[in-house]
């Protein structure tokens, strides 16, 4: 399994745990989180598509994109996990 899929799977795991932990909060909180996550994924994908400009058409183009996807996803996972841990306290 490639690194991006692994980091994406981990983000999904943390996201799902956060959604479960938010049950019983305000009714609009989970839909807001879902909307924010969808918007964040769209941003990540668009941003990382741009990252390929550094070597457009070259051998490194996909490496730059993959690196961006991994780093952005790991950062978001950390943010979601921070929120999850703050709920569990």
Folded structure, characterized:
The chain is an all-alpha fold. The protein has a single domain, classed as Substrate Binding Domain Of Dnak, Chain:A, Domain 2 (Up-down Bundle), CATH 1.20.1270. It has three helices and no strands. Helix 2 (29-50) runs antiparallel to helix 3. The mean pLDDT is 92.
Oligomeric state of shown chains? single chain
Largest sheet geometry: none
Q: In angstroms, what is the radius of gyration?
A: 15 Å
- The N- and C-terminal alpha carbons lie at a distance of 34 Å
Structural class of the secondary elements? mainly alpha
The global form is elongated
Number of domains: 1
**SS summary, helix count:** 3
Q: What proportion of the residues is helical, as a percent range?
A: over 70%
Average pLDDT level: 92
What is the CATH architecture assignment?
Up-down Bundle
Using the coordinates above, name the CATH class. Answer: Mainly Alpha
At the fold tier of CATH, the topology name is Substrate Binding Domain Of Dnak, Chain:A, Domain 2
Please trace the helix and strand order, writing H or E for each element: HHH
Strand fraction equals under 5%
SS elements, strand count: 0
Low-confidence region ranges: none
Tags for this model:
89 residues; mainly alpha; Substrate Binding Domain Of Dnak, Chain:A, Domain 2; 78% helix; LprI-like_N; DUF1311 domain-containing protein
Topology overview:
Elements: H1 3-21, H2 29-50, H3 61-88
Structure in a nutshell:
It is built from 3 helices and no strands.
